[in-house]
């Protein structure tokens, strides 16, 4: 890592660990200009995660290693179909959808950029760990493609690792973005026979960690400035925060629905709305925004979260500029590269709209610093009120509650890193 980057990481690190905790902002309903936002769009948190004590680990914990856990993606034409079979095992995704998605990969030589992005993240994390004096090895294992979780766990065990703190490359609560990682860790421990050898805990879902949110704030700031510079008045600009659609049934069960009054789309949508609200308050409180969804799959009869980003763009009225913010994603993987950069920007062009897609966190020093901070808070057993969290919803649980984000559609599967029922 170059000295300059290292210095940035160190600075970020110093900020995220020594600075005053980020001031907690009150979540206010978006300004009246925020059109087409559903009723109750800003969630009222009945019981902030911060108040539910047992879900946070408040004693220092020793870990032998960190496990960075990605989605995985194909790295050549021959990988595409086996990868898609891995992803969709037992999910009832129609063949036409798989065919369609395979073309997205084929278009880029059968290579998803996601593995290289995780290699870069790993490298940045190692530099940031060293800079922070954290002497912990980081293992990398994916859910759906090599390097697989099994290999990472076998290597870790061979190296003498007995306790790991896992970081999923996924910030929000839902079956696909949290529980499924926990199930796959349990599965990999079982498959490798390491269930009594290695213990895996996970960091909290980090949607509202200031270091995760910072790159989005900067991206929206820059895009708003550019739009204004291109002559678009604030009331002619609309910001679309885009995230992966999921089945509405999964959404309703996400994010501790017994503790929070989430409204439509459950905790998954509620967490996104809270972060989007915060970003807009920081950057441009008067510019209209909405939460939109992308990359839907599943049978057409199954309801998924809507509106689709393309429908939302086509439905814009009285706007001349649209900014698309990939709020649900940590890097520019296929969902961003295809569904946003190819399709959504094309839709915008067809509508005659000036459009920009803002960056994902990637290896932004603030995001890398957030991952370091998430590890440090667990090593320290840091008090909840001192943890980084820009919304009233967090800091989210260290230990998922019984039944958290379970998916009855797919049947019960054991998961680790949760409170056992
Ligand atoms: C919430 C969420 C995230 C964000 C959280 C996270 O990052 O984990 C995410 C990320 C990703 N999804 C990805 C790829 C795919 N997701 C699929 C299918 C699905 N995703 C779902 C949800 C999510 N997905 C769901 C509910 C399905 C239906 C089937 C199922 O319940 O599993 C399919 C099958 C075909 C299709 O249906 O499109 C593919 C190929 C890639 C890799 C991209 C690359 O290669 O660069 C990444 C990062
Ligand atoms: Fe996906």
Low-confidence stretches: 1-47
> What count of helical segments does DSSP give?
12
Measured distance between first and last alpha carbons? 44 Å
Order of helices and strands: HEHHHEHEHEHEHHEHEHEH
Q: Strands across the major sheet, in which order? A: 2-1-3-4
Question: What is the residue-mean pLDDT, rounded to a whole number?
Answer: 88
CATH topology of the largest domain: Rossmann fold
> How many domains would you count in the coordinates?
2
The CATH architecture of the largest domain is: 3-Layer(aba) Sandwich
Q: Strand count, sense and closure of the main sheet?
A: 4 strands, parallel
State the helical fraction: 25-40%
Which ligands accompany this protein?
Answer: coproporphyrin III, fe (ii) ion
Q: What is the 3D form?
A: globular
Number of strands: 8
CATH class of the largest domain: Alpha Beta
Strand residue percentage? 5-15%
Structural class: alpha/beta
The radius of gyration over CA amounts to 21 Å
């Amino acid at each position: 890592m170059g000295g300059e980057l290292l210095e940035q990481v160190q600075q970020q690190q110093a900020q995220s660990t020594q600075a005053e905790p980020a001031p907690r902002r009150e979540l206010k309903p978006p300004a009246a200009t925020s059109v087409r936002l559903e009723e109750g769009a800003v969630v009222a948190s009945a019981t902030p995660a911060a108040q539910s004590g047992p879900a946070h680990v408040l004693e220092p914990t020793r870990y032998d290693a960190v496990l960075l856990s990605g989605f995985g993606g194909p790295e050549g034409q021959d990988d595409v179909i086996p990868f898609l079979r891995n992803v969709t095992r037992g999910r009832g995704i129609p063949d036409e959808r798989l065919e369609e998605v395979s073309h997205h990969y084929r278009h880029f030589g059968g290579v998803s950029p996601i593995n290289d992005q995780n290699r870069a993240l790993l490298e940045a994390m190692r530099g940031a760990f060293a800079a922070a004096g954290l002497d912990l090895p980081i293992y990398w294992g994916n859910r759906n493609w090599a390097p697989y979780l099994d290999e990472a766990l076998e290597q870790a065990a061979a190296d003498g690792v007995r306790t790991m703190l896992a970081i999923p490359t996924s910030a929000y609560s839902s079956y696909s973005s949290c529980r499924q990682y926990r199930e796959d860790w349990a599965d990999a421990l079982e498959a490798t026979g390491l269930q009594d050898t290695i213990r895996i805990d996970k960091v909290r879902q980090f949607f509202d960690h200031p270091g995760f949110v910072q790159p989005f704030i900067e991206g929206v700031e820059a895009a708003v400035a550019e739009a204004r510079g291109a002559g678009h008045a604030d009331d002619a600009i609309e910001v679309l925060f885009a995230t992966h659609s999921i089945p509405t049934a999964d959404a309703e069960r996400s994010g501790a629905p017994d503790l929070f009054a989430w409204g439509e789309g459950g905790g998954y949508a509620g967490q996104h709305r809270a972060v989007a609200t915060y970003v807009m308050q920081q950057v441009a409180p008067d510019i209209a925004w909405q939460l939109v969804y992308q990359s839907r799959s599943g049978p057409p009869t199954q309801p998924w979260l809507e509106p689709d980003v393309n429908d939302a763009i086509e439905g814009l009225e009285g706007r001349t500029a649209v900014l698309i913010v990939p709020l649900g994603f940590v890097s520019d993987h296929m969902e961003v590269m295809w569904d946003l950069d190819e399709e959504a920007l094309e839709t915008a062009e067809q509508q005659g709209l000036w459009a920009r897609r803002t960056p994902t966190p990637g290896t932004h020093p603030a995001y890398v610093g957030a991952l370091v901070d998430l590890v440090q808070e667990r090593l320290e057993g840091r008090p909840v009120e001192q943890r980084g969290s820009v919304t009233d919803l967090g800091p989210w649980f260290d230990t998922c509650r019984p039944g958290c984000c379970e998916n009855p559609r797919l049947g019960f599967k054991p998961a680790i890193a949760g409170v056992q029922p």
